[in-house]
Amino acid sequence: AQSVTQLDSQVPVFEEAPVELRCNYSSSVSVYLFWYVQYPNQGLQLLLKYLSGSTLVESINGFEAEFNKSQTSFHLRKPSVHISDTAEYFCAVRGGTSYGKLTFGQGTILTVHP
Amino acid sequence: NAGVTQTPKFQVLKTGQSMTLQCAQDMNHEYMSWYRQDPGMGLRLIHYSVGAGITDQGEVPNGYNVSRSTTEDFPLRLLSAAPSQTSVYFCASSYSRTGGANGYTFGSGTRLTVV
Which of B43, B99, B109 sits opposite A99 (nearest CB)? Predict the structure, then answer.
């Protein structure tokens, strides 16, 4: 079975600083990787995903993540965060044969301070 | 607006009571699932369905039942509520049928407290 480890449960940063949220997954022949964001008292929204092709994927609000197969990682980065980025971020993985079933990490709470 | 609708948004139950959490989607998605979210544990899969009439267990199915009589609806039933079932419940759906990867569309959640 797939597993996902988010290495930091909480990440506090100051506004305009860079941030990296780390995600490692258990190895599989093929995987699809996702980052979801959850704002307070809301459901989860898809932030970005890696399915195939370029290992660097980007979101519309400046986040990016890089698929690293050798290190089984899919870290999320943003060069300059805003107060509005404060949220909980979940990494998720779906193995190539595990139809539809996403496995989620424990979540990382990103808090951006002014 | 198209999406996943969950009702109710909040619920308080007494231990031993039963109830049904409703989930409906209007995107003609084949795949639907229920997750529970607990602090520090991420989201854990309770049950899922790959189409009408087909359901299967996820990671934490005990104490919950599901059925899928239509493509649109996927209710989650708590048979005899326990305090350990206090959680936030999310329903999610996806059009993926052949195994092609995609993200899920999530509902806004049901916050359940069992006292």
Answer: B99
Residue B65, C-beta contacts closer than 8 angstroms, at least 6 positions apart: B47, B76, B77, B79
Q: Which residue does chain B place closest to A51, by CA atoms?
A: B101
pLDDT in tens, A38-58: 998 888 988 998 888 888 888
Whether A105 contacts chain B with CB within 8 A: yes
Disruptive mutation site among B4, B37, B111 for chain A (greatest number of A CBs within 10 Å): B37
CA-nearest of A35, A57, A58 to A47 is A35
Cis peptide before B75 (omega within 30 of 0): no
Burial (CB count within 10 angstroms: exposed 0-12, middle 13-18, buried 19+), residue B102:
middle
The amino acid sitting at B115 is V
Per-residue model confidence as pLDDT tens digits over A2-44: 789 999 999 999 999 999 999 999 866 678 889 999 998 888 9
